[in-house]
């Protein structure tokens, strides 16, 4: 299948490209992970607000399976945030939202066209929400000690490696390229069953072939530095540039809501 993937870089993400009628509107939610808090205090706070009441028993078991407190917090807050935020888009109680999962593990809303995707790194979780077209999001913390060189040949095409190595900030460029690849793979829903090396993500238009039928031929990706040392990319099945609307959902600043 022939694919086109246009990649762009947003330097002023408060005014994203094509912020008008001919664009794909994407809500991008920043969610503090509170990974440094004691896990029991996060659970107690969630109970006090009634948030645990709208998590089904199987979802409550998911965050309890993690060993580290920071992972438990991140998972629990992610689950609560996704239901709380999507309920605002759908205008239904969080408890009534029904999720499904694709063959390769991508979650989706049952019988509803609204699209969403979740990512996390470091101290933050990000949720992208769009209307109808498949989308994916990835965020990475740009650690100055991260040894990226050993991954270049495993993940990137030769011209991408050249661009990374010749750029003014090779580490930053590495994460720009990496988050684009992962956002695209999450958007198409096949994950790493498609090798990252098969997806070119240079700035501008990229044309390539895949043996899998993605259902869409034209894709767009945007990349930005949402916070100091955090690179985020969003990919979606559209030729239109997305208009990104950023917002914050803070677990520790929420009021009690009805489930």
UniProtKB/TrEMBL annotation:
Residues 134-234 form the 4'-phosphopantetheinyl transferase domain. Keywords: Kinase, Transferase. GO terms for molecular function: kinase activity. The keyword Transferase applies. Pfam families: AASDHPPT_N (PF22624), ACPS (PF01648). SUPFAM superfamilies: 4'-phosphopantetheinyl transferase. The keyword Glycoprotein does not apply. PANTHER family: L-AMINOADIPATE-SEMIALDEHYDE DEHYDROGENASE-PHOSPHOPANTETHEINYL TRANSFERASE, PHOSPHOPANTETHEINE TRANSFERASE. This is 4'-phosphopantetheinyl transferase superfamily protein.
């Amino acid at each position: 299948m022939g694919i086109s993937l246009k990649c762009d870089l947003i330097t002023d993400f408060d005014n994203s490209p094509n912020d008008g009628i001919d664009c794909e509107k994407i809500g991008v939610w920043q969610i503090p992970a509170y990974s440094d808090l004691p896990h029991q205090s996060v659970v107690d706070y969630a109970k006090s607000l009634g948030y645990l009441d709208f998590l089904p028993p199987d979802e409550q078991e998911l965050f309890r399976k993690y060993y580290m407190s920071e992972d438990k917090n991140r998972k629990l807050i992610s689950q609560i945030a996704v239901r709380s935020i999507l309920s605002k888009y759908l205008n239904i109680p969080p408890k009534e939202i029904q999720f499904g999962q694709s063959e390769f593990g991508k979650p989706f809303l049952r019988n509803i066209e609204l699209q969403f995707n979740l990512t996390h790194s470091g101290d933050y979780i990000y949720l992208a929400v769009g209307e109808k077209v498949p989308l994916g999001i990835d965020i990475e913390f740009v650690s100055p000690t991260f040894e990226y060189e050993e991954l270049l040949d495993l993940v990137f095409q030769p011209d991408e490696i050249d661009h990374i190595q010749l750029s003014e900030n090779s580490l930053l460029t590495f994460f720009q390229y990496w988050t684009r690849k992962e956002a695209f793979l999450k958007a198409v829903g096949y994950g790493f069953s498609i090798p990252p090396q098969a997806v070119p993500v240079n700035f501008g238009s990229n044309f390539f072939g895949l043996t899998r039928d993605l259902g869409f031929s034209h894709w767009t990706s945007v990349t930005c530095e949402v916070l100091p040392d955090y690179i985020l990319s969003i990919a979606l099945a559209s030729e239109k540039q997305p208009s990104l609307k950023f917002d914050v959902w803070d677990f520790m600043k929420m009021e009690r809501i009805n489930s």
